[in-house]
């Protein structure tokens, strides 16, 4: 059986709102900044690198350690490049962070993302399509209160 791809993500907050990004696809487009773990990286290193690459700033403060892990398998209609086809899905390790930058410092990686928003937990429920992903996120958010 194919392995899960190692992945890391940061749930960044500013007050009661969270930074959500949208991928350029139709299904499951809204998520938190995330990406694959490269050789020699820890999950935290990868999360911070991916956040900086995707959002354009590294002005965050990690709060605590790893907050949760979410596994998901690719669906049959996922548009996967050749590098991802060797995996069955992703193993996402989440970190929680305080966002320290200004909105003007957010510069999306337009090769990977098309939009960003600050959202409340109620808005997360409207934008995130996967019930399992949403449940893991809300569990992490609730644990930080």
What does this protein structure show overall?
The chain has helices at 43-55, 121-127, 131-143; strands at 4-14, 17-22, 30-31, 34-36, 60-62, 68-73, 89-99, 115-119. A hairpin with a 7-residue loop joins strand 2 (17-22) and strand 3 (30-31). The protein is built from three helices and eight strands; from the N terminus they run ββββαββββαα. It is globular, with a radius of gyration of 14 Å. The chain is α+β, with helices and mostly antiparallel strands. It has one domain (4-143): Nucleoside Triphosphate Pyrophosphohydrolase (Alpha-Beta Complex). 23% of the residues lie in helices and 32% in strands. The model has no long low-confidence stretch (mean pLDDT 93).
Strand runs, count: 8
CATH topology: Nucleoside Triphosphate Pyrophosphohydrolase
- The poorly predicted ranges are none
What is the CATH architecture annotation? Alpha-Beta Complex
Amino- and carboxy-terminal Cα gap? 39 Å
The fraction of residues assigned to DSSP E strands is 25-35%
Percent in helix: 10-25%
Shape: globular
Characterize the main sheet.
Answer: 8 strands, mixed
- What is the count of helical runs? 3
- Provide the number of structural domains: 1
Radius of gyration: 14 Å
Class derived from helix and strand content? alpha+beta
CATH class: Alpha Beta
The overall pLDDT, averaged over residues, is: 93
């Amino acid at each position: 059986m194919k392995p899960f791809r190692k992945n890391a993500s940061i749930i960044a907050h500013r007050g009661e709102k969270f930074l959500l990004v949208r991928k350029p696809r139709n299904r499951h487009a809204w998520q938190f900044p995330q990406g694959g773990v490269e050789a020699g990286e820890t999950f935290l290193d990868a999360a911070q690198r991916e956040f900086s690459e995707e959002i354009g700033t590294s002005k965050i403060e990690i709060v605590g350690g790893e907050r949760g892990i979410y596994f998901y398998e690719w669906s049959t209609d996922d548009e996967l490049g050749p590098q991802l086809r060797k995996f069955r899905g992703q193993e996402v390790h989440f970190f929680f962070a305080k966002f320290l930058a200004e909105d003007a410092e957010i510069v999306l990686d337009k090769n990977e993302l098309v939009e960003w928003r600050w959202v409340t937990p109620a808005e997360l429920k409207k934008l995130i399509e996967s019930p399992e992903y949403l449940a893991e996120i809300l569990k992490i958010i609730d644990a930080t209160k």
